[in-house]
Automatic annotation (TrEMBL):
This is 3-methyl-2-oxobutanoate hydroxymethyltransferase. One of its GO terms (cellular component) is cytoplasm. 3-methyl-2-oxobutanoate binds at residues 45-46, 84, 114. Its cofactor is Mg(2+). Its EC number is 2.1.2.11. GO terms for molecular function: 3-methyl-2-oxobutanoate hydroxymethyltransferase activity; magnesium ion binding; methyltransferase activity. Belongs to the PanB family. Its main location: cytoplasm. Keywords: Cytoplasm, Magnesium, Metal-binding, Methyltransferase, Pantothenate biosynthesis, Transferase. It is found in: Cytoplasm. It is an enzyme of class 2 (transferase).
Length: 277
């Protein structure tokens, strides 16, 4: 399979072929996503929560994002690799944003970076990063990095004011140069309007039908403990399977039944004698 490119993603939108994106935070997940044939892999800052145990995405650092991104890069061949930039690493200035984006390209060979928000300042960052030659995926609707300002982790675009703001911002991020847009937790009727107005591929999460879908890997695998968002579907129960496997291992160690003879090395009689001497 040839490497997925920006023109290929645009072609998929034009042909009505759904784009499949999934998050990954380490090498084995990247391998699994690659073997499953996904189009795009996202090193989401959701990794702050799902693999690093933070309570929100805002505390993750660029060094942490890069450690995850480099591992994912090593496992990714044909899928298009997008990396989230950490909160606080693009907010100060266009220069800061370009420097951050450059690190993901140089150190993790990211194909693109993803940037949340569509305010004037964010549009300026998108223009600056695109001008530096780095493709940008925009992210609108529920933007977890600024969820506190949005009133919490809740759906966006359900009121007249927020719905028209999302449509305006979507058009603006496309005009600023984003080649793709992720929309999170927005009613499908509003997303349908965005799709009519825009020509770039729209990837939805909690956004109904779109040109593509993205889910957090651990949510779809059924690893995440506790409640999951309304828009998540678990396609596995890997969390339970993991606990069961570790429990079986613990029980066999405690019972003395693991390791068995088949897990042990044999020594020559001379080696045993020498060890005893
Ligand atoms: O961090 C993440 O996983 C994301 C997706 C939910 C789009 O931004
Ligand atoms: Na994210």
């Amino acid at each position: 399979m040839p490497k997925v490119s920006i023109p290929r993603l645009a072609e998929k939108r034009a042909n009505g072929e759904p784009i499949v994106m999934v998050t990954a935070y380490d090498y084995p997940a990247a391998r699994a996503a690659e073997r499953a044939g996904v189009d795009m892999v996202l090193v989401g800052d959701s990794g702050a929560q799902v693999v690093l145990g933070h309570s929100s995405t805002v505390s993750v650092t660029t060094d942490e994002m890069l450690m995850m991104s480099k591992a994912v890069r090593r496992g990714t061949e044909t899928a298009f690799l997008v990396c989230d930039v950490a909160f606080g690493t693009t907010e100060e200035s266009d220069e800061q944003a370009v420097a951050t984006a450059v690190r993901f390209v140089k150190e993790a060979q990211a194909d693109a970076i993803k940037l949340e928000g569509g305010s004037e300042a964010r549009l300026s960052r998108i223009r600056a990063i695109v001008a530096a030659g780095i493709p940008v995926v925009a992210h609108l609707g529920l933007t977890p990095q600024t969820a506190t300002a949005l009133g919490g982790l809740r759906a966006q675009g359900r009121t007249a004011a927020t719905a028209s703001r999302i449509v305006d911002e979507a058009f603006a991020v496309q005009e600023a140069g984003a080649f793709c847009l992720v929309i999170e937790a927005v009613p499908s009727e509003i997303v349908a309007v965005v799709r009519e107005r825009l020509s770039i591929p729209i990837i939805g999460i909690g956004a109904g039908p779109a040109d593509g879908q993205v889910l957090v890997l651990h949510d779809l695998l059924g690893v995440t403990e506790g409640g999951i968002a309304k828009f998540v579907k678990s396609f596995g129960s890997i969390g339970e399977a993991t606990v069961a496997a570790i429990s079986d291992y613990a029980a066999e160690v405690r019972a003395g039944s693991f390791p068995g003879p088949e897990h042990q090395y044999a020594a020559t009689p001379e080696a045993v004698d020498a060890a005893r001497a």
